[in-house]
Amino acid sequence: MALSPELCKKMYTDMWRIRLFEEEANRQTSLGSVVGALHMYCGEEAVAVGVCSNLRDDDYVLGTHRSHGHCLAKGAESHRMMAELFGKATGTCGGKGGSMHIADFSLNMLGANGIVGAGIAPATGAALASKLRGTDQVSVCFFGDGAAARGTFHEGIGLGALWKLPVVYVCENNQYQQWVPRMNVAVLDSVADMAGSYAIPGVSVDGQNLVEVHEVAGEAVERARKGGGPTLIEARTYRFYGHSLGDEEQYRSSEEVDEMRTNHDPIQTFLSTMMEQGWLTEEEDTEIQNQVKDEIAEAVRFAEESPYPTPDNVTTDVLAPEQEVA
Amino acid sequence: MMRTLTFSEALREALHEEMERDETIFVIGEDVITHGGPYKVTDGIAERFPERIFETPIAEAGIMGVGVGAAMAGMNPVVEIMYMDFVTCAMDEVVNQAAKMRYMTGGQASVPMVIRLPCGVGRLLAAQHSQIMESWFMHVPGLQVVVPSTPGDAKGLLKSAIRSPDPVLFFEYKRIYTSTGEVPDGDHTIPIGQAKICREGEDATVVAIGPMVQKSLEAAVLLEDDGYDVEVVDARSLSPLDTETICESVSRTGHAVVCGEDSSFAGAASEIAAVIGENCFRDLKGPVVRVGSPHVPMPFSSELVKHVVPEVPDITEAVSRVMM
Ligand SMILES: Cc1ncc(C[n+]2csc(CCOP(=O)(O)OP(=O)(O)O)c2C)c(N)n1
Ligand SMILES: [Mg+2]
Predict the structure, then answer these.
(1) What is the mean pLDDT of residues B111-130?
(2) CA distances from residue B229 to B2, B201, B223, B280, B282 in whole angstroms, order as listed
């Protein structure tokens, strides 16, 4: 998709929505309103937004334990996501899923996932479904660099490549796997290099640069849609926060984090580009940020005022409601 | 002499002492060096035994398979699965490889490995980080399943598990890692396959698993007010199961309640209840009742979780019911 000022403004807004949504969720955790694990996506916004800006509403997305960004970029509503984090009945999953399991099937967002690497084969399966139904929907699977070590990576991509399915595999290589630096437990630095094993294109891209991600993903999505089969994209990125909240981050230096936050913030990088191109004025920038701030404040209000699920919900959704047998 | 330790400290001590004693023991798992694992059980091992601890990529099937192979080749691996839910990613290695090797090879193979499994609810991590699959593994011949409920038992059982010539699934309830208790000094071991009578009583037997032991002891105190003298038995080992201790107690009291945190449906408590039913029928004065969670995945919302995880009132209610 060619870059128009409108699209750029939308992408810029989407990145701010992710950033502010999470920073607020983080704050709500310290207040005790949000419970459970919160895996912050901040710092990686350009990946979700750069990829999803190439997708149609009916394309499929599957995510990870770190998926607030993927959900929001696919169009999930911030107030229902916030309610989910609060464990409320109005949440995207009625309070049953929480941060690690947010899904919105009305948007073909088939779910975040608590199991590392678990989305790769299912994304391949959703692509198989598109092919079988004869639609031209594309599936995208986001996963971390850690997931590339799992058998599901090999098996899932292997099948996608074998059947030339319309799927794009997006590895978010943020160089850490929970508390372990990637290169302590990996031999290959670049996950893109693994594409050769499946005879599909593998591309490495600067995940802090929205324009680059958008372009690389655009090509991959188009190839998939036209029947050219899968692509493996590695977005080199960085998470600004610890693995999840409460992480003391003894495995990396604060200088490293500061350097990334200061010089490789995807939002600031894109802002500079937009300013240089004359796509955004300072007033518009302020307006966008204020508008997103209001939206997130509204999301918190909605979550706070929403009811908790009632005890009878404990046993619903295990199986489909009983249907009358004709 | 006794010392007071937390559950995770007791496990850590057992690991250190065993690794000191036997050079074939090694630790393998995710984040076991950089962070000492999520519950710090492997803390300090990298400093003391740098050659015998392996921090892995996220590759449960690989980790488990490496454990099986090394065990068959004479080593004693202690495998850490970060959360037990992820053991499902390595089921072939546990069920078709580790469990069946001795039998299939006519007794040639030995797979002396311990699989450590942090389980159950912790800090509201929902359905994929909260499971308790005791009965899954009880159902597989060739595996042993142990569930300590106190720091002392944790240490003693882990040592025995490490010394066992066959695979042991070692359940560590996340909720009790920080609980404290007395641990005897010296080479403290507890044989696998022995239940423990934690409190003697005459009117009813509560057989409990893991954290339900402590809750059952609390329930027993409350039940004194109702005039019930309750015996509490900690199952400790689910496979092999100490049928003798459990059935002797139930035959004496005439009433039985079996408590586990897992879903009662086809759970560990179900097997125990069946064993009691078969062996103690003529001494029973009431039905054998299970206390456990409903047959649902673990929800996220705290408001739902509190209706899933069984607590003390569920036990007192069950005891009162069987005594009626
Ligand atoms: C199969 C499995 N093993 C282990 C875990 C525990 N775990 C959760 S996130 C994580 C690290 C994932 O690293 P990566 O894939 O690089 O994603 P990132 O967190 O860096 O986004 C681990 C080990 C898990 N959820 N699933
Ligand atoms: Mg990573």
Answers:
(1) 96
(2) 29, 5, 7, 19, 21
What gap in Å lies between CA B274 and CA B270, rounded to an integer?
6
- Which ligand has its closest atom nearest to the C-alpha of A175? 2
Looking at residue A246, what is its pLDDT? 86
Please give the Cα distance from B274 to B250 (Å, whole number). Answer: 13
- Is the Cβ of B92 closer than 8 Å to some Cβ of chain A? no
Residue B175 contacts residue B276 (beta carbons within 8 Å): no
Domain that holds residue A98: 5-306
Q: Is the pLDDT of residue B308 over 90?
A: yes
Mention every residue, 6+ apart, whose C-beta is less than 8 A from residue A260. A43, A238, A240
Q: Give the distance (Å) from ligand 2 centre to CA of residue A193.
A: 16
Average of per-residue pLDDT across B200-210: 98
Residue nearest atom 25 in ligand 1 by C-alpha distance = A115
Tens of pLDDT, residue by residue over A46-74, are: 999 999 999 999 999 999 999 999 999 99
Task: List where CATH 3.40.50.920 sits in chain B.
Answer: 196-322
CATH class of B196-322: alpha beta
* Beta-carbon contacts of residue A321 (< 8 Å; ≥ 6 apart): none
Classify residue A147: in a domain, yes or no: yes
Q: Does ligand 1 have an atom closer than 6 angstroms to the CB of B60? A: yes
- Nearest atom within ligand 1 for CA of residue A66: 21
Residue B63 one-letter amino acid = I
What residues in B contact A151, CB-CB < 8 Å? Answer: 59, 61-62, 89
The answer to the question of residue A317 being in a domain is no
Got the DSSP string for B129-187? S----HHHHHTSTT-EEE---SHHHHHHHHHHHHH-SS-EEEEEEGGGTT-EEEEESSS
- Tell me which residues have their CB within 5 A of the ion that is ligand 2: A 144-145, 174
ipTM entry:
0.95
How high is the pLDDT of residue B324?
85
CATH T-level topology, domain B2-184: Rossmann fold (3.40.50)
Token digits of residue B191: 């044989």
> Does any domain span residue A311?
no
Each residue of B79-101: pLDDT tens digit?
999 999 999 999 999 999 999 99
User: Is residue A321 situated within a structural domain?
Assistant: no
Q: Which two tokens stand for residue A296?
A: 């997130």
Peptide bond into B112 cis (omega under 30): no
Low-confidence ranges of chain A (pLDDT < 50): none
Single pTM value for the model: 0.97
Here the tokens at position B13 are 């001590």
Q: What is the CATH number of the domain that holds A188?
A: 3.40.50.970
Number of domains in chain A: 1
